[in-house]
Amino acid sequence: MPEGIKLFTGNSNRALAAEVAGCLAIHVGDATVGTFSDGEIMVRINENVRGTDTFVIQPTCAPVNHNLMELLLMIDALKRASARRITAVITYYGYARQDRKVQPRVPISAKLVADLITASGANRILTIDLHAAQIQGFFDIPVDHLYAAPVLLEYINGRHLEDIVVVSPDAGGVERARAFAKRLQASLAIIDKRREAANISEVMNVIGDVKGKNALLLDDMIDTAGTITQAVSAIREKGARRIFAACTHAVLSGPAIERLNSSELDEVIVTNTIPLDSKKQQCEKLTVLSVAPLLGEAIKRIHEESSISSLFV
User: Which residues are catalytic?
Assistant: First the structure.
C-alpha cells in the first residue's frame, strides 16, 4: 500500500477491521476506545495521523447508540489531530429504516444520523447495502455505496444449484431481487406482504412460479426474521423444493435465531458487516461470508483516487 493511509476501528466490529487491514497489508491504527466510570465514551488516538488519509471502520449495529457515539467521537478526535481526510466506513447503517415520515410527528432518524456524522468531521462515507438508496442524498459529502451482491453471487454460484428462483420477500426489494436473478440467470418471484406494525408482517400471496424449484429469498437484512420465515412458509406451500435465504446484514434481534432454527430453511447466507460469532454458534444454518476483500479494494481505490465504479455491482 502507498504511504499515508491509516485504518482505525471502534469496538463494534474489530474482527472485520483486522481482516480488512490484512487485505491491505497494513495494521489497525492504535486507538483507545473505552468508557469512563459514569458510562461516557472515551477516545484517544495513540499515533500520529497528521496529514494522513484515515478510514474508520464502525458499523452502527447493536448497541446502536453506543456504537454511533464511538464513531462520532473517533471522527472528531481524528479531525482535531489534523488528519487530511476522514472516511467513515459504516458497513451497517443504523436507523436506516427510519428514512421517511410514515406517520405524523415522527423523526426522519436516518437524516439526523447523517447530519451528525457530517458535523463530526467526516469527509466521505463508505457503506454497504443501505436499506434505502436515497439515504445517500441525506449526506452533503460524497457517499460510496457498495453492494455485497458479488460476494453472495460467488458463493451461490459455487453451490451449483439448478433451477433457481430468486424471491423478493416484499415489494420494496423487487429491484434488488431482479438484478440478482438476472446475474444468476434465474427466474423471479415476489411475496405480496402486508405489514401490520413494526417488526410484524403477514404474508398474503406469492407472485411467480416456485413449484419444484430451489428458492433463494433475498433481502438486505434479517432483523427479527419474521418476514423471511413467513415467506418460507408461503413458498413451501407453493411447492418450492429447497429454500435458502441470503442477506447482507444479519441483525438477528429478538426471536430471530429461534425462528430461523425452527424454519424449513436449508441455509441462511449472510455477510460479516455485523459481528456474528455468538449468533453463529446458536444457529447452525448460518453461513457467514466476508466482505473484507471488497472493502479493502474500495479503500485502496479511494486512497489512490481511482474509480470504484466496477465495485458497484
Answer: 193
